[in-house]
Design a protein that fits this description.
Elements: H1 18-43, E1 44-48, E2 63-67, E3 81-84, E4 95-101, E5 106-110, E6 113-117, E7 123-125, E8 139-143, E9 148-152, E10 168-169, E11 173-182, E12 188-189, H2 195-199
Antiparallel strand pairs: 1-2, 2-11, 3-4, 3-11, 4-9, 5-6, 5-8, 6-7, 9-10, 11-12
Length: about 200
């Protein structure tokens, strides 16, 4: 009786090098994190409120996230709080204001009260509950050029805005103020005002 030496031996599974696995996982995580950061940078931008022009809706030093893609989905709307590049002759720093007048409309301010002559011929008297520091300043009828916006700060007695004779070109809008990230005590959505909802 003979015993064969040709019996098949079970294959021994080679264990992958643990360091190689760890390195591969770290590279994968880094790539995913990089992609997420790039996406966030394309969609959002951080902005710090500088100055009192939006008192008391927004505070000096308040840190916000700005939605940079929302206006690729729809046009800017009256009541939106936006961050934008002002005309170069005005300033080089980004501004934050509220949209009051839309392209092609005519705006009139009488002792601080805002009247909008809309493109459909109707006249809208703005109810602005977000204003704490009211102004008695007036402005003669001003026609807003097509493709441009009339913006004002909520602190009407201390805001350098479109009442000074300039309007905002659509292409200079960075995005819509979306959420407060600092300080934590006021974390939450930015109080944009929906005039269309109010009218409805």
């Amino acid at each position: 009786m003979t015993i064969s030496n040709n019996m098949e031996q079970p294959e021994i599974q080679k264990q992958p090098n643990q360091w190689k696995v760890l390195l591969r996982d770290l590279v994968t995580i880094a790539v995913i994190a990089g992609v997420i950061i790039l996406i966030l940078q394309a969609v959002m931008q951080k902005f710090i409120v500088d100055g009192p022009s939006m008192d008391y809706t927004l505070r000096n030093g308040q840190q916000l996230m700005v939605n940079k893609i929302i206006y690729s989905l729809h046009e800017p709307e009256r009541g939106d709080i936006i961050v934008f590049h002002p005309p170069e002759e005005i300033d080089t720093d980004d501004y934050i204001k509220r949209i009051i007048g839309l392209p092609g409309e005519t705006i009139l301010i009488v002792e601080g009260k805002v009247f909008i002559h809309k493109k459909d011929g109707s006249i809208l008297e703005l109810d602005e509950p977000y204003i704490t520091n009211k102004s008695t300043r007036s402005l003669a009828e001003f026609e807003i050029p097509e493709g441009e916006y009339f913006v004002m700060g909520d602190n009407r007695i201390n805001s350098a805005d479109s009442r000074n004779g300039w309007t905002l070109e659509r292409e200079n809008i960075i995005g819509k103020a979306w959420i407060t990230v600092w300080p934590p005590s006021i974390w939450g959505l930015i109080p944009n005002h929906d005039f269309d909802k109010e009218a409805g």
